[in-house]
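re: ur question from earlier - yeah i can do the single chain one, its not a big deal. heres the input i used so u can compare w yours
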Amino acid sequence: MEPDEGFVRRVKALAFTAPLHELDAHKGRLDWADASVYHMAEIALAILDQVALAMDFDYGAERLVVLDRVLPYVRVQAPDRSRDEHERVATWVLEKLINVGTIDRLFRLVYGEIDQEGAYLRRDFDFRLLEERRSRDGRVGLRASDGAINVLVGALDTDVESAQVAAEVKLQNLIQRGLLADARLAAQQARYRTIQYGETIRRRLDATRRDVRLVDWSQEIPELLDSALNHIEQRFVMEEAILRTITIARDESVDEDHKRQAANLVDIVRDCMRRHTQLQSRLQSARAVFREEQDRQQFSGRPQRAAFNLFGQLLSPLLALPVPKAIGPLEKFFSAASGLEAPDVLSLPGLVDLLQQPGPLRDGTAGPVYQPDLSPLPDPLRFDESLWAEADRLLDLVGTERTLGQLLTEAASIHPELPRLVALRAHRAVAPDLGEARRHARPQVLVAAPTGSLLSAEHPGGVHGDDLVVSTAVITQDVPGDQEGTAS
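and the output i got, formated as C-alpha coordinates:
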Protein backbone atom coordinates (compact mmCIF):
# COMPACT_ATOMS: atom_id res chain seq x y z
CA MET A 1 0.00 0.00 0.00
CA GLU A 2 1.06 3.58 -0.65
CA PRO A 3 0.90 6.49 1.83
CA ASP A 4 -2.37 8.43 1.77
CA GLU A 5 -2.07 11.88 3.33
CA GLY A 6 -5.74 12.65 2.73
CA PHE A 7 -6.77 9.62 4.77
CA VAL A 8 -4.52 10.72 7.68
CA ARG A 9 -6.01 14.23 7.56
CA ARG A 10 -9.53 12.81 7.76
CA VAL A 11 -8.57 10.60 10.72
CA LYS A 12 -7.11 13.63 12.53
CA ALA A 13 -10.18 15.69 11.76
CA LEU A 14 -12.44 13.01 13.28
CA ALA A 15 -10.26 12.97 16.39
CA PHE A 16 -11.58 16.40 17.39
CA THR A 17 -15.09 14.97 17.80
CA ALA A 18 -14.00 12.07 20.04
CA PRO A 19 -13.91 14.13 23.32
CA LEU A 20 -17.50 15.23 22.67
CA HIS A 21 -18.73 11.64 22.33
CA GLU A 22 -16.84 10.64 25.48
CA LEU A 23 -18.81 13.20 27.49
CA ASP A 24 -22.06 11.25 27.03
CA ALA A 25 -20.23 7.97 27.58
CA HIS A 26 -18.84 9.13 30.94
CA LYS A 27 -21.81 11.13 32.28
CA GLY A 28 -23.07 8.05 34.14
CA ARG A 29 -20.05 8.26 36.45
CA LEU A 30 -21.20 11.54 37.98
CA ASP A 31 -22.11 10.82 41.60
CA TRP A 32 -23.61 14.25 42.35
CA ALA A 33 -26.43 14.17 39.77
CA ASP A 34 -28.47 11.89 37.55
CA ALA A 35 -26.99 13.12 34.26
CA SER A 36 -28.95 10.77 31.99
CA VAL A 37 -31.30 13.62 30.97
CA TYR A 38 -28.48 15.84 29.73
CA HIS A 39 -27.02 15.65 26.21
CA MET A 40 -23.43 16.54 27.03
CA ALA A 41 -22.21 16.67 23.42
CA GLU A 42 -24.83 19.33 22.59
CA ILE A 43 -23.82 21.36 25.65
CA ALA A 44 -20.19 21.07 24.55
CA LEU A 45 -21.06 22.41 21.08
CA ALA A 46 -22.89 25.32 22.69
CA ILE A 47 -19.82 26.11 24.83
CA LEU A 48 -17.49 25.95 21.82
CA ASP A 49 -19.86 28.25 19.93
CA GLN A 50 -19.95 30.83 22.72
CA VAL A 51 -16.17 30.79 23.17
CA ALA A 52 -15.55 31.25 19.43
CA LEU A 53 -17.98 34.18 19.27
CA ALA A 54 -16.78 35.88 22.46
CA MET A 55 -13.03 35.78 21.80
CA ASP A 56 -11.35 38.37 19.60
CA PHE A 57 -7.85 39.12 18.35
CA ASP A 58 -6.48 40.40 21.69
CA TYR A 59 -8.55 38.72 24.39
CA GLY A 60 -10.10 35.35 24.92
CA ALA A 61 -13.60 34.61 26.16
CA GLU A 62 -14.22 35.09 29.87
CA ARG A 63 -15.09 31.87 31.64
CA LEU A 64 -18.00 33.26 33.67
CA VAL A 65 -19.52 34.95 30.62
CA VAL A 66 -19.41 31.70 28.63
CA LEU A 67 -21.02 29.72 31.45
CA ASP A 68 -23.73 32.35 31.89
CA ARG A 69 -24.60 32.23 28.17
CA VAL A 70 -24.69 28.43 28.08
CA LEU A 71 -26.78 28.08 31.25
CA PRO A 72 -30.17 28.59 29.49
CA TYR A 73 -29.32 25.79 27.06
CA VAL A 74 -28.58 23.45 29.98
CA ARG A 75 -31.72 24.54 31.81
CA VAL A 76 -34.01 23.78 28.90
CA GLN A 77 -32.81 20.14 28.86
CA ALA A 78 -33.77 19.60 32.52
CA PRO A 79 -36.12 22.39 33.67
CA ASP A 80 -37.10 20.53 36.85
CA ARG A 81 -33.52 20.46 38.16
CA SER A 82 -31.95 23.15 40.36
CA ARG A 83 -29.80 26.03 39.14
CA ASP A 84 -26.82 24.69 41.12
CA GLU A 85 -26.99 21.42 39.19
CA HIS A 86 -27.23 23.28 35.86
CA GLU A 87 -24.14 25.30 36.74
CA ARG A 88 -22.22 22.18 37.81
CA VAL A 89 -23.10 20.40 34.57
CA ALA A 90 -21.98 23.35 32.44
CA THR A 91 -18.77 23.70 34.45
CA TRP A 92 -18.07 19.95 34.16
CA VAL A 93 -18.46 20.02 30.38
CA LEU A 94 -16.27 23.14 30.09
CA GLU A 95 -13.48 21.59 32.16
CA LYS A 96 -13.67 18.40 30.09
CA LEU A 97 -13.22 20.46 26.93
CA ILE A 98 -10.16 22.12 28.51
CA ASN A 99 -9.07 18.64 29.67
CA VAL A 100 -8.56 19.74 33.27
CA GLY A 101 -6.85 17.07 35.36
CA THR A 102 -4.14 16.17 32.89
CA ILE A 103 -0.59 17.50 33.07
CA ASP A 104 -0.34 19.08 29.63
CA ARG A 105 -4.13 19.36 29.03
CA LEU A 106 -3.78 17.67 25.66
CA PHE A 107 -6.11 15.17 24.04
CA ARG A 108 -4.20 12.32 22.43
CA LEU A 109 -5.19 10.06 19.54
CA VAL A 110 -3.22 7.01 18.44
CA TYR A 111 -3.63 6.57 14.70
CA GLY A 112 -1.91 4.57 11.99
CA GLU A 113 -0.40 5.54 8.68
CA ILE A 114 1.44 3.81 5.85
CA ASP A 115 5.08 4.85 5.39
CA GLN A 116 7.06 4.90 2.15
CA GLU A 117 8.02 1.23 2.55
CA GLY A 118 4.38 0.17 2.97
CA ALA A 119 4.65 -0.58 6.70
CA TYR A 120 1.87 0.35 9.12
CA LEU A 121 3.13 2.75 11.83
CA ARG A 122 1.30 3.95 14.91
CA ARG A 123 1.71 7.60 15.83
CA ASP A 124 0.40 9.99 18.50
CA PHE A 125 -1.68 13.02 17.53
CA ASP A 126 -2.01 15.66 20.28
CA PHE A 127 -4.61 18.40 20.04
CA ARG A 128 -6.71 20.83 22.09
CA LEU A 129 -10.29 22.02 21.85
CA LEU A 130 -10.27 24.85 24.40
CA GLU A 131 -7.26 26.37 26.11
CA GLU A 132 -6.77 29.04 28.73
CA ARG A 133 -4.41 31.72 27.46
CA ARG A 134 -3.07 34.80 29.23
CA SER A 135 -3.14 38.04 27.24
CA ARG A 136 -0.44 40.69 27.39
CA ASP A 137 -2.28 42.66 30.08
CA GLY A 138 -2.52 39.58 32.34
CA ARG A 139 -6.15 38.62 31.65
CA VAL A 140 -6.85 34.90 31.31
CA GLY A 141 -9.38 33.91 28.68
CA LEU A 142 -10.63 30.87 26.79
CA ARG A 143 -9.66 30.38 23.16
CA ALA A 144 -11.00 27.80 20.72
CA SER A 145 -8.53 25.91 18.57
CA ASP A 146 -8.75 25.43 14.81
CA GLY A 147 -10.00 21.90 15.39
CA ALA A 148 -12.82 23.18 17.63
CA ILE A 149 -13.90 25.68 14.96
CA ASN A 150 -13.86 22.91 12.35
CA VAL A 151 -16.17 20.93 14.65
CA LEU A 152 -18.56 23.90 14.73
CA VAL A 153 -18.49 24.30 10.95
CA GLY A 154 -18.84 20.56 10.40
CA ALA A 155 -15.93 20.39 7.97
CA LEU A 156 -12.59 18.66 7.72
CA ASP A 157 -9.23 20.36 7.96
CA THR A 158 -9.53 22.74 4.99
CA ASP A 159 -7.74 25.85 3.84
CA VAL A 160 -9.09 28.82 5.78
CA GLU A 161 -9.04 31.40 2.98
CA SER A 162 -10.64 29.17 0.34
CA ALA A 163 -13.29 28.05 2.83
CA GLN A 164 -14.03 31.70 3.70
CA VAL A 165 -14.49 32.65 0.04
CA ALA A 166 -16.68 29.60 -0.62
CA ALA A 167 -18.83 30.34 2.43
CA GLU A 168 -19.48 33.94 1.40
CA VAL A 169 -20.23 33.03 -2.23
CA LYS A 170 -22.69 30.45 -0.93
CA LEU A 171 -24.19 33.04 1.41
CA GLN A 172 -24.71 35.54 -1.39
CA ASN A 173 -26.30 32.92 -3.62
CA LEU A 174 -28.72 31.82 -0.90
CA ILE A 175 -29.74 35.42 -0.15
CA GLN A 176 -30.44 36.13 -3.81
CA ARG A 177 -32.61 33.01 -3.96
CA GLY A 178 -34.49 34.10 -0.82
CA LEU A 179 -33.44 31.08 1.29
CA LEU A 180 -32.77 33.04 4.47
CA ALA A 181 -32.94 30.03 6.80
CA ASP A 182 -30.12 28.33 4.88
CA ALA A 183 -28.35 31.66 4.47
CA ARG A 184 -28.17 32.06 8.26
CA LEU A 185 -26.26 28.76 8.55
CA ALA A 186 -23.90 29.83 5.77
CA ALA A 187 -23.37 33.20 7.47
CA GLN A 188 -22.50 31.49 10.74
CA GLN A 189 -19.97 29.30 8.96
CA ALA A 190 -18.45 32.37 7.28
CA ARG A 191 -18.11 34.02 10.68
CA TYR A 192 -16.38 30.93 12.11
CA ARG A 193 -13.91 31.02 9.22
CA THR A 194 -13.25 34.71 9.91
CA ILE A 195 -12.48 33.83 13.54
CA GLN A 196 -10.20 31.01 12.40
CA TYR A 197 -8.35 33.30 9.98
CA GLY A 198 -7.73 35.81 12.77
CA GLU A 199 -6.45 33.03 15.06
CA THR A 200 -3.94 31.98 12.40
CA ILE A 201 -2.51 35.51 12.17
CA ARG A 202 -2.53 35.96 15.96
CA ARG A 203 -0.52 32.77 16.56
CA ARG A 204 2.11 33.89 14.05
CA LEU A 205 2.47 37.22 15.84
CA ASP A 206 2.66 35.54 19.24
CA ALA A 207 5.41 33.26 17.95
CA THR A 208 7.25 36.36 16.69
CA ARG A 209 7.08 37.95 20.14
CA ARG A 210 8.60 34.81 21.65
CA ASP A 211 11.35 34.42 19.07
CA VAL A 212 11.56 36.06 15.63
CA ARG A 213 13.53 33.08 14.40
CA LEU A 214 10.50 30.81 14.77
CA VAL A 215 8.66 32.57 11.93
CA ASP A 216 9.81 33.06 8.35
CA TRP A 217 9.61 36.83 7.89
CA SER A 218 11.70 36.80 4.74
CA GLN A 219 9.10 35.18 2.47
CA GLU A 220 6.30 33.25 4.15
CA ILE A 221 4.85 35.91 6.47
CA PRO A 222 5.04 38.83 3.98
CA GLU A 223 3.17 36.72 1.44
CA LEU A 224 0.63 35.74 4.11
CA LEU A 225 0.10 39.38 5.12
CA ASP A 226 -0.34 40.54 1.51
CA SER A 227 -2.81 37.76 0.73
CA ALA A 228 -4.69 38.43 3.98
CA LEU A 229 -5.02 42.14 3.20
CA ASN A 230 -6.28 41.35 -0.29
CA HIS A 231 -8.65 38.82 1.20
CA ILE A 232 -10.05 41.38 3.65
CA GLU A 233 -10.47 43.97 0.91
CA GLN A 234 -12.47 41.51 -1.19
CA ARG A 235 -14.50 40.45 1.82
CA PHE A 236 -15.44 44.06 2.59
CA VAL A 237 -16.80 44.48 -0.93
CA MET A 238 -18.65 41.18 -0.72
CA GLU A 239 -20.07 41.84 2.75
CA GLU A 240 -21.23 45.34 1.85
CA ALA A 241 -23.17 43.91 -1.08
CA ILE A 242 -24.58 41.11 1.09
CA LEU A 243 -25.56 43.60 3.80
CA ARG A 244 -27.41 45.82 1.31
CA THR A 245 -29.28 42.83 -0.09
CA ILE A 246 -30.29 41.57 3.36
CA THR A 247 -31.38 45.03 4.49
CA ILE A 248 -33.62 45.46 1.45
CA ALA A 249 -35.09 41.99 2.01
CA ARG A 250 -35.75 42.85 5.64
CA ASP A 251 -37.40 46.19 4.93
CA GLU A 252 -39.58 45.02 2.01
CA SER A 253 -40.76 41.76 3.57
CA VAL A 254 -44.23 41.57 5.15
CA ASP A 255 -43.67 38.15 6.70
CA GLU A 256 -42.65 38.50 10.36
CA ASP A 257 -40.61 35.30 10.32
CA HIS A 258 -38.87 36.43 7.14
CA LYS A 259 -38.05 39.82 8.68
CA ARG A 260 -36.69 38.15 11.83
CA GLN A 261 -34.40 35.88 9.81
CA ALA A 262 -33.16 38.83 7.78
CA ALA A 263 -32.47 40.81 10.98
CA ASN A 264 -30.43 37.92 12.38
CA LEU A 265 -28.44 37.81 9.15
CA VAL A 266 -27.74 41.52 9.41
CA ASP A 267 -26.28 41.06 12.91
CA ILE A 268 -24.08 38.16 11.79
CA VAL A 269 -22.71 39.97 8.72
CA ARG A 270 -22.02 43.12 10.74
CA ASP A 271 -20.12 41.02 13.27
CA CYS A 272 -18.05 39.59 10.38
CA MET A 273 -17.31 43.11 9.17
CA ARG A 274 -16.26 44.16 12.68
CA ARG A 275 -13.89 41.22 12.93
CA HIS A 276 -12.45 41.95 9.49
CA THR A 277 -11.85 45.56 10.54
CA GLN A 278 -10.03 44.43 13.66
CA LEU A 279 -8.00 41.92 11.67
CA GLN A 280 -7.07 44.57 9.10
CA SER A 281 -5.68 46.87 11.80
CA ARG A 282 -3.54 44.03 13.18
CA LEU A 283 -2.28 43.14 9.71
CA GLN A 284 -1.26 46.71 9.01
CA SER A 285 0.75 46.83 12.25
CA ALA A 286 2.27 43.34 11.89
CA ARG A 287 5.45 44.48 10.16
CA ALA A 288 5.98 47.10 12.86
CA VAL A 289 5.62 44.33 15.46
CA PHE A 290 8.30 42.34 13.68
CA ARG A 291 10.74 45.28 13.60
CA GLU A 292 10.13 46.08 17.27
CA GLU A 293 10.58 42.48 18.35
CA GLN A 294 13.68 42.11 16.21
CA ASP A 295 15.31 45.12 17.89
CA ARG A 296 14.18 44.07 21.35
CA GLN A 297 15.36 40.47 21.05
CA GLN A 298 18.63 41.43 19.35
CA PHE A 299 19.69 43.74 22.17
CA SER A 300 18.10 41.89 25.10
CA GLY A 301 21.19 39.81 25.80
CA ARG A 302 21.75 36.11 25.62
CA PRO A 303 18.61 33.96 25.92
CA GLN A 304 17.92 32.61 29.35
CA ARG A 305 17.99 28.94 30.10
CA ALA A 306 14.75 27.10 29.48
CA ALA A 307 12.64 26.10 32.47
CA PHE A 308 13.22 22.61 33.81
CA ASN A 309 10.37 20.15 33.32
CA LEU A 310 10.46 18.24 36.59
CA PHE A 311 7.96 15.60 35.49
CA GLY A 312 9.04 14.98 31.90
CA GLN A 313 12.80 15.41 32.27
CA LEU A 314 13.42 13.94 35.73
CA LEU A 315 10.57 11.89 37.21
CA SER A 316 9.45 9.92 34.12
CA PRO A 317 12.99 8.87 32.99
CA LEU A 318 14.07 7.96 36.53
CA LEU A 319 11.01 5.77 37.15
CA ALA A 320 12.11 3.60 34.24
CA LEU A 321 15.61 3.08 35.71
CA PRO A 322 16.65 0.58 38.38
CA VAL A 323 17.32 2.03 41.83
CA PRO A 324 21.16 1.90 41.71
CA LYS A 325 21.24 3.89 38.46
CA ALA A 326 18.61 6.42 39.61
CA ILE A 327 20.35 7.38 42.86
CA GLY A 328 23.18 9.28 41.14
CA PRO A 329 21.02 11.68 39.04
CA LEU A 330 18.70 12.28 42.00
CA GLU A 331 21.60 13.24 44.28
CA LYS A 332 22.98 15.63 41.66
CA PHE A 333 19.59 17.25 41.11
CA PHE A 334 18.77 17.81 44.78
CA SER A 335 22.28 19.04 45.61
CA ALA A 336 21.99 21.63 42.83
CA ALA A 337 18.33 22.50 43.48
CA SER A 338 18.67 23.00 47.23
CA GLY A 339 21.45 25.60 46.79
CA LEU A 340 23.86 26.91 49.37
CA GLU A 341 22.86 27.71 52.92
CA ALA A 342 22.56 31.47 53.39
CA PRO A 343 24.53 32.81 56.39
CA ASP A 344 22.76 34.75 59.12
CA VAL A 345 24.94 37.82 58.51
CA LEU A 346 25.76 38.81 54.94
CA SER A 347 27.91 41.92 55.56
CA LEU A 348 29.84 43.82 58.25
CA PRO A 349 27.09 46.45 58.76
CA GLY A 350 24.64 43.63 59.24
CA LEU A 351 26.90 42.07 61.87
CA VAL A 352 27.15 45.44 63.72
CA ASP A 353 23.36 45.84 63.70
CA LEU A 354 22.94 42.30 64.97
CA LEU A 355 25.37 42.86 67.86
CA GLN A 356 23.73 46.16 68.84
CA GLN A 357 20.25 44.70 69.12
CA PRO A 358 19.07 44.45 72.76
CA GLY A 359 18.77 41.00 74.17
CA PRO A 360 15.40 39.40 74.77
CA LEU A 361 13.63 40.10 78.06
CA ARG A 362 13.95 37.19 80.44
CA ASP A 363 11.06 36.03 82.54
CA GLY A 364 11.74 35.70 86.23
CA THR A 365 9.83 32.46 86.42
CA ALA A 366 10.36 29.26 84.59
CA GLY A 367 7.41 30.01 82.31
CA PRO A 368 3.98 28.48 82.08
CA VAL A 369 3.47 24.86 82.98
CA TYR A 370 1.82 22.92 80.22
CA GLN A 371 -0.41 20.01 81.07
CA PRO A 372 0.52 17.05 78.87
CA ASP A 373 -2.23 15.49 76.80
CA LEU A 374 -2.03 11.86 77.85
CA SER A 375 -3.79 9.35 75.68
CA PRO A 376 -5.47 6.42 77.46
CA LEU A 377 -3.69 3.11 77.31
CA PRO A 378 -5.06 0.59 74.83
CA ASP A 379 -7.27 -2.17 76.18
CA PRO A 380 -5.31 -5.34 77.02
CA LEU A 381 -6.06 -8.54 75.16
CA ARG A 382 -8.92 -10.41 76.79
CA PHE A 383 -7.56 -13.81 75.77
CA ASP A 384 -3.83 -14.24 76.19
CA GLU A 385 -1.61 -16.82 74.49
CA SER A 386 -2.06 -19.38 77.25
CA LEU A 387 -5.87 -19.35 76.83
CA TRP A 388 -5.49 -19.78 73.06
CA ALA A 389 -3.18 -22.75 73.65
CA GLU A 390 -5.71 -24.36 76.01
CA ALA A 391 -8.50 -23.76 73.49
CA ASP A 392 -6.43 -25.40 70.73
CA ARG A 393 -5.88 -28.42 72.97
CA LEU A 394 -9.60 -28.78 73.80
CA LEU A 395 -10.67 -28.36 70.16
CA ASP A 396 -8.19 -30.86 68.75
CA LEU A 397 -10.88 -33.46 68.04
CA VAL A 398 -9.45 -35.49 65.17
CA GLY A 399 -11.28 -38.83 64.98
CA THR A 400 -13.75 -37.92 67.75
CA GLU A 401 -16.55 -35.50 68.51
CA ARG A 402 -17.86 -33.70 71.58
CA THR A 403 -20.76 -31.44 72.40
CA LEU A 404 -20.27 -27.78 73.14
CA GLY A 405 -21.73 -28.28 76.62
CA GLN A 406 -19.06 -30.85 77.47
CA LEU A 407 -16.31 -28.55 76.18
CA LEU A 408 -17.63 -25.60 78.22
CA THR A 409 -17.72 -27.66 81.42
CA GLU A 410 -14.12 -28.80 80.96
CA ALA A 411 -12.99 -25.29 79.97
CA ALA A 412 -14.50 -23.75 83.11
CA SER A 413 -12.40 -26.04 85.28
CA ILE A 414 -9.23 -24.68 83.64
CA HIS A 415 -9.88 -20.89 83.51
CA PRO A 416 -13.04 -18.76 84.02
CA GLU A 417 -12.50 -16.93 80.65
CA LEU A 418 -11.79 -20.06 78.62
CA PRO A 419 -15.47 -21.08 78.08
CA ARG A 420 -16.25 -17.87 76.17
CA LEU A 421 -13.23 -18.35 73.86
CA VAL A 422 -14.21 -21.97 73.20
CA ALA A 423 -17.82 -20.92 72.49
CA LEU A 424 -16.70 -18.21 70.02
CA ARG A 425 -14.51 -20.63 68.07
CA ALA A 426 -17.19 -23.32 68.07
CA HIS A 427 -19.86 -20.95 66.71
CA ARG A 428 -17.46 -19.80 63.97
CA ALA A 429 -16.94 -23.47 63.01
CA VAL A 430 -20.61 -23.83 62.02
CA ALA A 431 -19.68 -22.39 58.55
CA PRO A 432 -15.97 -23.12 58.08
CA ASP A 433 -14.11 -21.51 55.17
CA LEU A 434 -12.42 -24.46 53.47
CA GLY A 435 -11.00 -22.28 50.67
CA GLU A 436 -9.19 -20.03 53.15
CA ALA A 437 -7.83 -23.07 55.03
CA ARG A 438 -6.41 -24.54 51.82
CA ARG A 439 -4.84 -21.23 50.78
CA HIS A 440 -3.03 -21.09 54.12
CA ALA A 441 -2.03 -24.78 53.85
CA ARG A 442 -3.86 -25.80 57.05
CA PRO A 443 -4.03 -29.59 57.50
CA GLN A 444 -7.34 -29.56 59.38
CA VAL A 445 -10.29 -27.31 60.16
CA LEU A 446 -12.80 -27.15 63.02
CA VAL A 447 -16.42 -27.96 62.08
CA ALA A 448 -19.64 -27.82 64.13
CA ALA A 449 -23.33 -28.54 63.63
CA PRO A 450 -26.44 -27.95 65.78
CA THR A 451 -27.69 -30.89 67.87
CA GLY A 452 -31.27 -29.62 68.03
CA SER A 453 -31.16 -28.96 71.82
CA LEU A 454 -30.34 -25.87 73.87
CA LEU A 455 -27.51 -25.29 76.28
CA SER A 456 -28.60 -25.44 79.88
CA ALA A 457 -28.46 -22.29 81.99
CA GLU A 458 -25.93 -23.91 84.33
CA HIS A 459 -23.09 -23.69 81.81
CA PRO A 460 -20.39 -21.27 82.94
CA GLY A 461 -19.15 -18.23 81.05
CA GLY A 462 -22.62 -16.80 80.34
CA VAL A 463 -22.96 -18.83 77.11
CA HIS A 464 -26.54 -19.42 75.90
CA GLY A 465 -28.13 -20.76 72.72
CA ASP A 466 -28.09 -23.98 70.70
CA ASP A 467 -25.89 -26.83 71.69
CA LEU A 468 -23.42 -27.95 69.01
CA VAL A 469 -21.57 -31.09 68.13
CA VAL A 470 -17.93 -30.17 67.45
CA SER A 471 -15.23 -32.12 65.65
CA THR A 472 -12.05 -31.61 63.60
CA ALA A 473 -12.05 -32.36 59.86
CA VAL A 474 -8.87 -33.28 58.00
CA ILE A 475 -8.41 -31.54 54.63
CA THR A 476 -7.58 -34.12 51.95
CA GLN A 477 -5.39 -33.66 48.86
CA ASP A 478 -6.71 -32.19 45.60
CA VAL A 479 -8.84 -34.39 43.36
CA PRO A 480 -9.41 -33.81 39.64
CA GLY A 481 -12.02 -31.11 38.96
CA ASP A 482 -12.08 -29.98 42.62
CA GLN A 483 -11.19 -26.27 43.02
CA GLU A 484 -11.71 -25.95 46.77
CA GLY A 485 -10.60 -29.31 48.13
CA THR A 486 -12.59 -31.55 50.49
CA ALA A 487 -12.72 -32.13 54.21
CA SER A 488 -13.30 -35.49 55.90
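The chain is about 55% helix and 10% strand. not sure if urs matches, ping me
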